[in-house]
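Figure S4 source data
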Amino acid sequence: MQRFAKLLSVCTAGLTSLLLANCSQPQLEATFHSEDNPSLLSDWGVFDISSGALVLSDGVVPYDLNTPLFTDYAHKLRTIWVPGGAQPAAFVADDYPDFPVGTVISKTFYYPSDPAGSNVVLKVSDVEGQLNPALDNLSEVRLMETRLLVRRDSGWDAVSYVWNAEQTDAVLTKIGDAQSLVLVDEDETQSEFAYIVPDINQCAGCHAPNNTTREIAPLGVRPRHLNKAYLHDDRQVNQLTYLAEQGMLADVLDPDLIARNADWMDLSTDLNARARSYLDINCSHCHNPVGPADTSGLDLTMASAFGPELGVCKLPIAAGAGTGGLAYSIVPSEPDASILLHRMEETSPGTMMPELGRSLQHAEGVALIRAWIAEMEGQCTS
């Protein structure tokens, strides 16, 4: 337990302490590669780790989401960089901003590490919000991968890098990767799992939310996910407002007039809003009216109405054996009779949902959706 207490003490400092502690470091420069993807992540210049701390380059802005995507309890550092002199992105209230050519969005996945072994990582409870262990001491962190979305003339490209064993740089991959890890909980429970880095086709499986165009697109930078306060420049400021101040966004409305997803862990927030926000970020890239799972008839976006399109009393269309022998996607007041929850609990390929991005069950997410279904009113008639 001592190792977790020590780790939690630095978690509360957050990423901002990292940036302030390293403000005296020489200014680094991010670089846009218009065609070829360099073999090493460091060639993009998004951040530097040579000092044993992760230092963001000048103009690279960190951001967070109201409710984040679950990826086997990995923590994530998210950043965005727009080249100097580029036109601000037009603000789109219900979709991602139209960022200019040269934009680089990064997401670095990592775990608090354990001296007990190089493949042992720690699960830190996020009981008070999404905690980012401070990356100012990389000896206490296991860097796993960094994914980039790069805006080129032809559109968005997904580029993936896997961190080397020495933790000195990350190497370009198109075929993905799999690493055997042991996750240790606060109560010392151990779970062996395979951490999966998606291949280039699997990247498109999530980041092509329109099954007709199949165009790669950013997901987390949609306003409803970003519409929250964050500590920038030693002040709490709405992220959309801050991006506008930095010249990255244009014509941003008053954040209070823009849709905002709930924080799924904020117990003071309405349960329905928390559950819908969780399903939106984890499922709606496929389960939307034009998404890869459009044939399922299941719409898990924030816009879907309560009823069959959300899964309530909806018969499965193409779930096959994934139904577990259950009749409806969601049965009000009966979580254990609901296919949606069954597939969230499963970890076997072909049954679990989401299909990509996890090997472990997200116990806390399952508990949230279970409570949401349990409180639903109504009855399914055969």
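Figure S5 source data
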Amino acid sequence: MRKFSQDVLGSIAILKFPEKTLLNKKKKLAKEFLRKNNQIKGVFEKAGKIKGRLRKAEIRFLAGDKNQETTYLENGCKFKFDINETYFSPRLASHRKEVSEELAKKIKNNQKILVMFAGVAPLPITLGKILKKQNKKVKIISNEINRKANKYAKENIKLNHLEYFIEIISGDAKKLPTKLKQKFDIILMPRANLKNTFLKTALKLSKKGTLIYYHGFGERESVIEEIKKDAGGKIGKIKIKKAGEIAPYRFRWLVKFRVK
């Protein structure tokens, strides 16, 4: 039987144990993990699901240093964040890279890009880094409702020297059409598993030809149905593929379409 799964984020490890594992057993395994991995300073447990619109995790300290802030390297980018106050999934690293590399080939100079639900800005920064290397002149707007995530996003943008490329607009995504009063060429929606699709908001920020990348959850057919329900006849052909497993036999889907 597997003892636990793990996510390593810089100097912090987050372990997830099978149900009914006793706390004393968890602490013992955490101390063993700490001894065998010199680069790890603190070991924590994923004690519950990601909750709410702020996407805060339920984290429990198990061993080592109690400091919840870490710096993590991914795809040549540096990210700083608090594991208890902000959402960050290292398991989406390859997905972020794939999406960014794909988009970088399509993006033209002076285009406007919006990343909704951006968290500490891993997707804007991964994309921005590639576009900077290509010497493309673009503006990326990073939007997130979690104030602490925006604080780290601002710091991460500086750490990666992308101040010219990325601007942070904080607050509720629903208010973006009023706040921004502009249309975007590309909208990325790495949203959490929420009831609201936010597609109606995205469409208000779109123009003819806007390319939207949307994250949906559950069954493939239900994801397509929710998009058709909220976007109706305003979008063109839908392309959909798996973008990671969120639970046994339950998937995250990446859906791509253009606005008519």
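The helical segments are 23-36, 93-106, 122-133, 147-159, 176-180, 199-204, 220-231. Residues 23-36 form the longest helix (14 residues).
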